[in-house]
Target: 50S ribosomal protein 6, chloroplastic
Amino acid sequence: MSVSALFGTRVMVPNKSLAVGAPKGGRAGGMGMVIECSSRPKKKATAHHMKTRPKKTQPWDVRRRPTVYPPLPPLPPDWTLAPSDDSAPPQPPLDNP
Model:
């Protein structure tokens, strides 16, 4: 779809030689057409979240630090070593109900 089909008007694309102060090289250099038709541009996701995030304004809240919890007890071992002697009879598997 073309720009003129979207807006219903003709869009004039100026020559590269008419551009004043256009950057040489790069991505935007020499493109020639800039469309600025949004009267209320929307912020992208990160910019929106940074603008609307809750801000700490009270002094007691600004000085507040994360909660310090006591360390967790050590976890039980995942594996236990069985004796390597062959005299021990094999144990039957446990049945789950």
